[in-house]
Known about the structure:
Helices cover 82% and strands 0% of the residues. It contains 7 helices and no strands.
Amino acid sequence: MKLYAERPVRLARQLLGDALLLLLLWVCVRLGQATHERIGSLAAPGRDAEAAGLTFQREMRSAARSVHDLPLVGGQVAKPFRAVAGSGQDLASAARSFQDTVAQVATFLGILVALVPALVLLALWLPRRIAWIVEATAATRLTRLGAASADLLAARALARQPLSRLARLAPDVVPGWKAGDPAATAALAQLELDELGLRSARQSTW
């Protein structure tokens, strides 16, 4: 499998593109983490409310235990304290539920903020990158097959290369290719290899 070009300019562009993609993906992850942390910080009042509720519950229970030992009326006096202590527990439970909700929203939005732009970047980058790998791998294999592969690449160049590039070739290249001239065939095949950033046909075994 051919992952990178052989010609310096194309290779540099590919390496720069891959590095830029990795950098942007890292930025997406950091944005997701920042979003998670920022939204997660909204749970702070819930933590304070939970702590206050538990503290209030402990104090009311402590007061209930203190008055419970009073002669005759201790049990009756302690009942309101126990009831109020229950409201502290309710406050703590509601605060915990609030924190759980904030944590879920923070996780969801953090993943969403990181994932959506990352998927867009990959959707723009992967098809072209994979297409080049497939084409370059096939072309590399062809260059190892000898003159027959040069004919195939030459025909492909005539079919898909821009006319502006074909016009820059010597006037006798196309007639020479039709006549089976190896030099003309190599010149056309080289256009395909140059576009992929691979070794030129003159440097191959043709």
